[in-house]
Design a protein that fits this description.
With about 70 residues, the chain is of the alpha+beta class. The chain has one domain. It is built from two helices and two strands. The mean pLDDT is about 75. It binds zinc ion (ZN). Zinc ion binds next to loops.
Amino acid sequence: MSPQCENCGAHVSAEYHRVRSGNDGVLHGCPSCTSPATRQREAAGLEADYKVRTDAEGRTVVDRGGEA
Ligand SMILES: [Zn+2]
């Protein structure tokens, strides 16, 4: 069974899901979510270490905090 992102429906690896999912076991964001069409505000609000914002020129900026 391949886990998927609850935000955009994209399939992700089991490892990615385990690492990035919240305490509720739900993955609220993934790399595919960087598209403005699929991104939801809650993806940023629910994951403190995964923030998506838009800069002054309208481009999507992904800020993973201190994580490499
Ligand atoms: Zn996603």
